[in-house]
Amino acid sequence: MSNKQPTSKIQQFEKQTYVDPNEKVLTSSLGTPVSDNQNSLKIGEKGPTLLEDFLLRDKLIHFDRERIPERVVHARGAGAHGYFHAYEGNEKWTKANFLIDTKTKTPIFVRISTVQGGRGSADVVRDVRGFSIKFFTQEGNYDLVGNNIPVFFIQDAIKFSDFVHAVKPENPNEIPTGQSAHDTFWDFISLNTETAHMSTWVMSDRAIPRNLRSIQGFGVHTYRLISADNKAVLVKFHWTPLQGVAQVVWDEALKLNGMDPDFHRRDLWDSIEQGNYPEWELGAQIFSEEDANGWDFDVLDPTKLIPEELVPVTPLGKFVLNKNPDDFFAETEQVAFSPANIVSGIDFTNDPLLQGRLFSYTDTQLHRLGTVNFNQIPINKPVCPFHTNRRGGYANHEIYQAKANYEPNSLDNNWPREAGDRSTSAFRSYEEKIEGCKLRVRPESFADHFSQATLHFSSLEEHEKQHIKDAYSFELSKVASQEIKQRVVDNILINIDLELARYVSKQFGLQVKDTQISQKKKAGSLTSKRLSISSFPASDIKQRKIAVLVHNGCNPNSINEIKKWADSENAIAEILGPSAAPVKDVNNNPVEVDGSQTGEPSVTYDAVVIIDGENYDEFISDGVAKHYVLESYKHLKPILLLKDKAELVDFLGLNQDEGVLKAEKVKEAKDAFKLAIQNHRIWDREEFIKAIPA
């Protein structure tokens, strides 16, 4: 009797269709070979994406369910409540009530998050920040789902899961967390040149913000606004912090993540608790399709921006964050955003990345929150009346008293019924004529991957350019594959800027071939000043934190002066001693401190004051205090030295620039000190800090 096991039909089939494992053809999850994994299925080159694209849905449905229970991306976030108040005159653009009703403050909930890391990762990592706003309008909920960077890595939603898989921790060891400095990310970048523009932003200072109160927001995609007379304009949404845009330096970011991994969420929470409510102005670049057709870039390409010199931002209103969540999980964690949550007066375009997000975000929430009734969770529930025919489902909280759950019906007077022409707030899709074949193709107008990357880099201040050079160098230093590094130079950097490519190549002994430089189109203008952080200065020092260093023998009058002045500016001055115990002033009276110089490190403050007194020798014998000043200087922060402490400039080898101030009394230097804090950093100091000990 034979012991040989019978061969199944499947095994027989596998044997017949055996292929070399080194020649693996990409298939769908059910084995259908994929002919084009770069483009979703559309009508014509620039038409809408089709729901029948089973390959797109196959990828996104799996991708949306890859993490349980936290979000696949944007897992670590902070949230806050607030309100939006519209400016006058928006009715000429849109019939969206929350944008034209200047008497009503629309409630909002905002969530700001990193992309790559999980819920337990650190805040001040180099990453994009998601910046989403849920408007609880009287016509339904509207979600403006954006980022703090105006463009994105990819052009088509079918590549989204590929990008995220590449940037996430690598499979063998789940390393690194919350970072893009590894092989798979840069392999993806080097092989997909459409990422070139976004890579310059992620390597810029925008990716390491000082706090969440000082970041811009962008809708990224092109949308439509529809007026009451059904006229349409195209828009790109912007929201700009009235606190100014600010960032940290890289060394500071690394130390912050070790000393206070919750730095960003703590800062936002404290700001709101202390009544220093952060504010942003919501605006839009408004333009016609005729305008767009005349430009040498495609506004439906999410890797492109519109220079503000070409289309200025029109202010639409202001929003304020004025209340912290009562329950992090119930609100910040369960809030469910989707660009598909839209109201009358706003509509979509055929941006192929947006088209995929309209499906994927809602699908993600269905999986993550476990029920089709996730919009009944209080943080997601509309504030306006809502009536559907949907019943049942897991975690249904609505009690329906009507008999009919279908439409039309004759049992409940045919309620609820469609609005028809009775309501101006009823959503109606914009009538766009579409002609063309069903195609998987990338439009030719999306083909230029480098002009705007060059535009961005060329528009920055010299110190911003240097930071980008250093960021590429640092990130690639963590890449093991020399081949990937060379490909980043050959395929990406040399097409952005020759000096950038040369600088980065030199760090690794790579070769740069000048003949590889492509002939680039011009992106509307050679430079765009509004791309630089320097174009968004702060108008005050509200919520800026000032470390006030004291020792035994300190001058109590100077302490009182600096605290009184900081209070008048809505800034925060905290007294820090050698330990958390009180120190003695010159009169031997106790001075209470807010913390110790070791427990409250310099990286968590925006400026430093060294209080005068009869204690110079005690100060210079304190290694922690000296390091505190040197580290603040290294991180380009303003430093005020009072009376006898002015000698520290020479003792510590500081260069007396516009941020190193000496004064007998606080009032003599307060204006210059305030300006230095407003300016956030003394960028001209960077060339001197290499001589300062670490």
Automatic annotation (TrEMBL):
<feature type="active site">
    <location>
        <position position="74"/>
    </location>
</feature>
<dbReference type="Pfam" id="PF18011">
    <property type="entry name" value="Catalase_C"/>
</dbReference>
<keyword id="KW-0376">Hydrogen peroxide</keyword>
<keyword id="KW-0560">Oxidoreductase</keyword>
<dbReference type="GO" id="GO:0046872">
    <property type="term" value="F:metal ion binding"/>
</dbReference>
<dbReference type="InterPro" id="IPR010582">
    <property type="entry name" value="Catalase_immune_responsive"/>
</dbReference>
<keyword id="KW-0408">Iron</keyword>
<keyword id="KW-0575">Peroxidase</keyword>
<dbReference type="InterPro" id="IPR020835">
    <property type="entry name" value="Catalase_sf"/>
</dbReference>
<dbReference type="InterPro" id="IPR024712">
    <property type="entry name" value="Catalase_clade2"/>
</dbReference>
<dbReference type="GO" id="GO:0020037">
    <property type="term" value="F:heme binding"/>
</dbReference>
<dbReference type="InterPro" id="IPR029062">
    <property type="entry name" value="Class_I_gatase-like"/>
</dbReference>
<dbReference type="Pfam" id="PF00199">
    <property type="entry name" value="Catalase"/>
</dbReference>
<dbReference type="InterPro" id="IPR011614">
    <property type="entry name" value="Catalase_core"/>
</dbReference>
<feature type="active site">
    <location>
        <position position="147"/>
    </location>
</feature>
<dbReference type="GO" id="GO:0004096">
    <property type="term" value="F:catalase activity"/>
</dbReference>
<dbReference type="GO" id="GO:0006979">
    <property type="term" value="P:response to oxidative stress"/>
</dbReference>
<feature type="binding site">
    <location>
        <position position="357"/>
    </location>
    <ligand>
        <name>heme</name>
    </ligand>
</feature>
<feature type="binding site" description="axial binding residue">
    <location>
        <position position="361"/>
    </location>
    <ligand>
        <name>heme</name>
    </ligand>
</feature>
<protein>
    <recommendedName>
        <fullName>Catalase</fullName>
        <ecNumber>1.11.1.6</ecNumber>
    </recommendedName>
</protein>
<dbReference type="InterPro" id="IPR043156">
    <property type="entry name" value="Catalase_clade2_helical"/>
</dbReference>
<dbReference type="GO" id="GO:0005829">
    <property type="term" value="C:cytosol"/>
</dbReference>
<comment type="function">
    <text>Decomposes hydrogen peroxide into water and oxygen; serves to protect cells from the toxic effects of hydrogen peroxide.</text>
</comment>
<dbReference type="InterPro" id="IPR024708">
    <property type="entry name" value="Catalase_AS"/>
</dbReference>
<keyword id="KW-0479">Metal-binding</keyword>
<dbReference type="Pfam" id="PF06628">
    <property type="entry name" value="Catalase-rel"/>
</dbReference>
<dbReference type="InterPro" id="IPR002226">
    <property type="entry name" value="Catalase_haem_BS"/>
</dbReference>
<feature type="binding site">
    <location>
        <position position="368"/>
    </location>
    <ligand>
        <name>heme</name>
    </ligand>
</feature>
<feature type="binding site">
    <location>
        <position position="111"/>
    </location>
    <ligand>
        <name>heme</name>
    </ligand>
</feature>
<keyword id="KW-0349">Heme</keyword>
<feature type="binding site">
    <location>
        <position position="160"/>
    </location>
    <ligand>
        <name>heme</name>
    </ligand>
</feature>
<feature type="binding site">
    <location>
        <position position="71"/>
    </location>
    <ligand>
        <name>heme</name>
    </ligand>
</feature>
<dbReference type="GO" id="GO:0042744">
    <property type="term" value="P:hydrogen peroxide catabolic process"/>
</dbReference>
<dbReference type="InterPro" id="IPR018028">
    <property type="entry name" value="Catalase"/>
</dbReference>
<feature type="domain" description="Catalase core">
    <location>
        <begin position="27"/>
        <end position="415"/>
    </location>
</feature>
<comment type="similarity">
    <text>Belongs to the catalase family. HPII subfamily.</text>
</comment>
<dbReference type="InterPro" id="IPR041399">
    <property type="entry name" value="Catalase_large_C"/>
</dbReference>
